């Protein structure tokens, strides 16, 4: 092993391909060595945040990376999912290129992208790669100090491409809409990275914003299903236990230290396919609450409860209960009053009475994992403490 200059971390040698840790600052589209990694003339890149967080990820992934990086790996992206345990996803240049082409085909053609998230994550990296494929330069939003709607509006004004796109997470879109930012200059807003609150896409449409719901994960090069329909050559099926399984050229090769996926990735998400092949994601399999003998998909309940005017953000978790086995609990960051009776009526009316929350816990903010995702285990521990 050797130390990579300027990174403070070590280079990890693979059996047939080197893996170089590359810190990618938030608010930057510059990824040293990306071109060589994509064309195979240089080592694969392990993309990490700068500083201690990047060093922590490299340290956590080091034992797996020491086993070797197979030829054909262009980048490795650390993903922690909802567990907080990092995995290194091995992704080929071929998969990344296909994803970029399929995205542009679906959206109506190549264009310029606004980078509003870290390029060390798959959604941000894809923005960089889509711009490269389109011969465009991304406009970069500086988010090191937090996401600011006024800065986003300024970045929008700097876009010059004939077609203009951005990828956002729901919280970002909510803040833009609350601030009254004009989004009509964008040909499409890809929205993913977590549950989309009920009514958010419709709210955006009323002000002329074209929002495309995306579903995917690092293991599928990011979003591979747009508005319920798979991108070109992406296949979907529902397994016997209700999980979404994905095939096609967007699949990553596998995890560091593990075998290849073998042509299919079985996700941790529950879903259903209608007769026309449109996918509805019901929530994560490990977020299903067994209450009174009924399986309650937490994400489905969250999407409905998010439509309550007093709910700014919501996460639904289970709490051990002597009568019900688990009680459905809504953990809410409130924007106004959130009476339990109203939340129960909302859930019962849109879903099922058995899915309605039996308690509400309010917090100022949600605990988060290093990936930025909500730390659901911490919230489960919190609600257990409210018994």
Structure description:
- The structure is a single chain.
- The protein is an alpha/beta fold and 387 residues long.
- It has 3 domains: 2-91, no CATH class; 94-284, Rossmann fold; 285-384, ANL, C-terminal domain (GMP Synthetase, Chain A, domain 3), CATH 3.30.300.
- It is built from 10 helices and 23 strands.
- The strands form 5 sheets. Strands 1-2-3-4-5-6-16 form a 7-stranded mixed sheet. It has a 7-stranded mixed sheet with strand order 8-7-9-10-11-12-13. It has a 4-stranded antiparallel sheet with strand order 14-15-17-18.
- α3 crosses α4.
- The protein is globular, with a radius of gyration of 21 Å.
- The model is unreliable at 1-15 (pLDDT under 50).
Question: What order do the helices and strands come in, and which of them pair?
Answer:
Blueprint: E1 2-3, E2 10-13, E3 18-23, H1 34-39, E4 44-48, H2 51-65, E5 73-79, E6 87-92, H3 93-107, E7 112-115, H4 122-134, E8 139-140, H5 149-157, E9 164-168, H6 170-178, E10 188-191, H7 200-206, E11 211-217, E12 222-226, E13 229-230, E14 235-238, E15 243-247, E16 254-255, E17 265-273, E18 279-284, E19 288-291, E20 294-297, H8 298-305, E21 311-321, E22 325-334, H9 340-350, E23 359-362, H10 376-384
Parallel strand pairs: 3-4, 4-5, 7-8, 7-9, 9-10, 10-11, 22-23
Antiparallel strand pairs: 1-2, 2-3, 5-6, 6-16, 11-12, 12-13, 14-15, 15-17, 17-18, 19-20, 21-22
